[in-house]
Amino acid sequence: MSFAAATAVKADGDGRHLAELSPDWAVGERPHGGYLLAVVARAALDAASHAPHPAPDPLAVSAQFLRPPAFGPAVVRTAVRRSGRTVTIVGATLEQDDAVCVEATVTCGTLPDGDPDWLDVPDLAAEPPATAMDVAGLPGNPLRIAGVADLRLDPATFGPVAGQAGLPPHIHLWLRPRDAEPDALFALVAGDISPPVVFNLGRFGWSPTVQLTALLRARPAPGWLRVRADSRSLHDRWFDEDHTVIDSAGRLVCQSRQLAIAPAPSAG
User: Fold this and answer.
1) Is the distance from CB of 48 to CB of 90 less than 8 angstroms?
2) What residues contact 107, with CB distance under 8 A and at least 6 apart?
3) Residue 180 pLDDT grade (very low, low, confident, very high; cuts 50, 70, 90)
4) Are 218 and 249 in contact (CB under 8 A)?
5) CA 256: distance to chain centroid?
6) What is the pLDDT of residues 105-164, one digit of tens each?
7) β-pairing, 149-153 with 88-96?
8) What is the DSSP string of 1-18?
9) Cβ atoms 147, 135 nearer than 8 A
10) Exposed (0-12), middle (13-18) or buried (19+): which is 133, by Cβ within 10 Å?
């Protein structure tokens, strides 16, 4: 299913929006976290479009992941908290079976055009190198999202495929939709696209996100999004994971930081 179709919402009155969570945009048997942010943000933008000061773009999304939803029907409830000339703030919850799965605040406004006045981003190639691996072809790959988004990974930065243990938690990836050009909502997917960086430290297994905040900085230019994912600290079971997302024009389009729970160290 295309990204636009998979994130579509239908207004149902009183800030309520109906969604259908697609199994294509998934990790294992659950919807991908960045995809859920995109669904929530689309509903929030619809709510913001009816506010006294309409706002066309997401500027920031801050979300608590309370429980993983299943594929299928879901409801996004929205409420405009503030509407101003510069920003409109929308509260949103993604619910399923009367239970809140994601609770978010979406800051809406207008993303800037043109070149930034100052920029400091990682030096990544604009396109995946010949050595990059197509994640869709990896044996046992749980990232079902790689079937609908072209996802390439630098194997030298990912221990499980590099055959190396103890690599630093820094992973380089490239991403684009398979059937369209990336937009600001797709940049939210890119802001949560990496396998858990603690895999490089030998901590394998389910690594649930507890909280994620993404800042949108520009509308992506057509072409590949390049991503650097890294961590500053793994302390007991808690780790942070940052994504820096750069478009084909070299502009910063998304920054994200999440707090997540690492798998326990192996007994060996």
Assistant:
1) yes
2) 58, 59, 60, 61, 87, 88, 89
3) very high
4) no
5) 8
6) 999 999 999 899 999 999 999 999 999 999 988 777 778 899 999 999 999 998 777 666
7) unpaired
8) --HHHHT-EEE-STTEEE
9) no
10) middle
